[in-house]
Design a protein that fits this description.
single chain; alpha/beta; six-stranded mixed sheet; four-stranded antiparallel sheet; 10 strands; 36% helix; binds adenosine-5'-triphosphate; binds magnesium ion
């Protein structure tokens, strides 16, 4: 689905990612993990067209999007749930969803909105509430719902669980599991090791803008040193 070839991106003179090769196979969850400042956000923002690409290529379904504007990438089926969510706080839940679907013909908005509400019934109950007055978890649900309004085939989520109450983390991961069954391909940035090991099919570990480990979640679980050095101190969960 996604192929990064020797991707280098950054801000002005600063390079945040150095020659990254990454393959995200269709129909599964790939997790991008690593310490603060490793380049996770920069990578996905470069794929979405919001961080300048200095060299290398971004291919989605074989289509070269490297030099295409962000809007063209949405048209190619790419959506992002950005770090910090970036909702419109003064718009209602429903209005945020409508804005999310703006690039598609208007007739597609109501069914897509209802799908978002079916995925997150809490949003349906709060459809006329201002986004800024939602809890952190509800805002994350809305950010996901808004991204889905573009009918993506490839969804990138930055820090799905960060700062959320455990119950909200559960709801967001249930939704992710349900989206996975629809065939959606997901690139997930997540700091919660147990969640990554449970949900991801493949894992790529970044350090200082470079990939230092790639493999399946099963391989990661079997490698305690990897978990200790790159995936935090937490113990790996027992195999299902
Ligand atoms: N807007 C910016 N301008 C300049 N440098 C930036 C900017 N955003 C990020 N950087 C730098 O790029 C590097 C990678 O940052 P990035 O945000 O991609 O890391 P990250 O892995 O997402 O970290 P975190 O876990 O803290 O979210 C860091 O050195 C960071 O300081
Ligand atoms: Mg980040």
């Amino acid at each position: 689905m996604l192929r990064l070839e020797n991707l280098t991106c950054g801000y002005g003179q600063m390079r945040a990612v150095h020659g990254l090769d990454l393959e995200v196979p269709a129909g599964g969850v790939t997790a991008l993990v690593g310490a603060n400042g490793a380049g996770k956000t920069s990578t996905i923002m470069a794929v979405a067209g919001h961080v300048a690409i200095r060299s290398g290529r971004v291919l989605v379904d074989g289509q070269d999007l490297t030099r295409r504007p962000a809007t063209a990438r949405v048209g190619a089926g790419v959506a992002i749930v950005p770090e910090g969510r970036r909702l419109f706080p003064d718009l209602t839940v429903e209005e945020n969803l409508i804005v999310g679907g703006y690039a598609l013909p208007a007739a597609r908005t109501p069914p897509n909105r209802e799908r978002a509400f079916a995925l997150f019934p809490r949003l349906a109950e709060r459809r006329r509430q201002r986004a800024g007055s939602l809890s952190g978890g509800e805002q994350q649900m809305l950010a996901i719902g808004r991204a889905l309004m573009t009918e993506p085939r490839f969804l990138m989520i930055d820090e799905l669980s960060l700062g959320l109450m455990p119950k909200m983390v559960d709801l967001c991961y249930e939704a992710l599991a349900s989206l996975k069954t629809t065939g959606l391909t997901v690139l997930l940035v997540e700091q919660n090791t147990a969640r990554v090991l449970a949900v991801a099919d493949r894992i790529c570990v970044l350090e200082s803008g470079r990939a230092v480990w790639r493999g399946t979640a099963a391989e990661a679980r079997a490698d305690p040193r990897l978990i200790e050095s790159y995936l935090g101190e937490r113990e790996a969960p027992a195999l299902p």
